[in-house]
């Protein structure tokens, strides 16, 4: 019995201890759970606060987005309106341009027709005028010889004046025809290889008699060689300028220099004549332009020589440069390419 009581007591004590241990453990678990609950409650509060802020931010962003979208829509509408306006404006300009192009083409065709008619008229007139003029020149020459033979010496100078005037008229007609051909782009170029020294010699032979009381100095580089071009046209240019040098120089010197440069030949005509005032230099290549345009002018001519020389030079890819001083003299430099440009070849 005693041992059973002891055993019972032992078991009771052990149960008490176990229970006590479990109570302690439970207490600690409860306290831990309480702490965790409090922590979770705080976290939930924070989350709620955050959620509110996020919600608010979302609302704000949405408002901002709506404002931006509205603004962009307005901008797009405005841009669209401007674009439409520009398209209309461009269409209008395009129509105007087309109309202007049409009328320019129309005007060009009309001008070309008029030009062709003018050239044809001038060519016909030139033929009609040349024939009787050549007769006048020929007959006045004949009459001069007959008058000399018959002893009518008093009328020889009048007959000579008729011949000179006829020749002048013939030259003017030729110049006018040349200008008309240049303007109508109907110049025929004959491209050949030219011995520059020969060209200079021929030009000098033709021009010498009209250089009046002036001395002519020709300085042609020995190695000036050959060039390609239209010999007659180049001679025509040089004769015009040399003729002017003789006409506008009195008892002076005319120097004719010919130099070769890498791609050019330079024909330089220097005179010690009356010179050209600076205000006349800029218009010197215009047709019918003379430094002295008065009725009482001292020098004859129609003001076409330099125009023809200038235009022909440009058509051959060259340029004429002038340097002149009133009362001292002038220098005309005709610069021509040794080989004409392709455009000249096409035209020739
Ligand atoms: N060497 C020169 N010295 C001074 N003036 C010149 C000289 N060359 C040309 N001029 C001026 O330029 C003008 C135009 O020359 P251009 O050769 O075209 O005509 P022009 O000699 O008067 O007439 P044309 O040559 O038709 O017979 C001349 O009238 C003259 O005033
Ligand atoms: Mg002249």
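^ Assign residues to that structure.
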């Amino acid at each position: 019995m005693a041992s059973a009581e002891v055993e019972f007591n032992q078991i009771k004590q052990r149960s008490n201890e176990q229970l006590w241990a479990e109570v302690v453990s439970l207490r600690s678990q409860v306290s831990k759970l309480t702490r965790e609950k409090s922590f979770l409650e705080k976290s939930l509060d924070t989350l709620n606060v955050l959620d509110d802020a996020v919600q608010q931010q979302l609302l704000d962003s949405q408002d901002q987005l709506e404002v931006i979208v509205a603004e962009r829509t307005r901008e797009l509408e405005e841009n669209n309106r401007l674009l439409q306006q520009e398209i209309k404006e461009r269409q209008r300009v395009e129509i105007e341009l087309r109309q202007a192009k049409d009328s320019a083409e129309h005007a060009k065709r009309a001008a070309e027709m008029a030009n062709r008619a003018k050239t044809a008229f001038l060519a016909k007139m030139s033929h009609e005028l040349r024939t009787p003029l050549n007769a006048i020149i020929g007959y006045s020459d004949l009459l001069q010889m007959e008058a000399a033979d018959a002893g009518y010496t008093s009328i020889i100078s009048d007959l000579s004046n008729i011949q000179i005037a006829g020749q002048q008229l013939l030259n003017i007609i030729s110049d006018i025809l040349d200008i008309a051909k240049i303007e109508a782009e109907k110049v025929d170029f004959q491209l050949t290889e030219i011995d520059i020294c020969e060209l200079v010699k021929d030009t000098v032979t033709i021009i010498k008699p009209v250089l009046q009381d002036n001395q002519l100095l020709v300085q042609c580089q020995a190695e000036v060689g050959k060039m390609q071009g239209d010999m007659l046209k180049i001679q025509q240019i040089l004769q015009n300028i040399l003729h002017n040098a003789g006409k506008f120089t009195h008892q002076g010197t005319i120097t004719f220099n010919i130099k070769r440069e890498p791609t050019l030949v330079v024909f330089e005509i220097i005179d010690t004549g009356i010179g050209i005032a600076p205000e006349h230099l800029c218009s010197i290549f215009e047709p019918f332009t003379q430094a002295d345009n008065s009725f009482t002018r001292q020098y004859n001519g129609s003001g076409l020589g330099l125009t023809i020389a200038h235009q022909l030079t440009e058509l051959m890819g060259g340029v004429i440069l002038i340097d002149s001083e009133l009362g001292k003299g002038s220098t005309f430099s005709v610069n021509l390419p040794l080989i004409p440009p392709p455009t000249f070849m096409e035209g020739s």
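Residues 175, 240, 244-245, 248, 271, 273-276, 284, 289-292, 301-307, 330 surround adenosine-5'-triphosphate (ligand 1) (CB under 6 Å).
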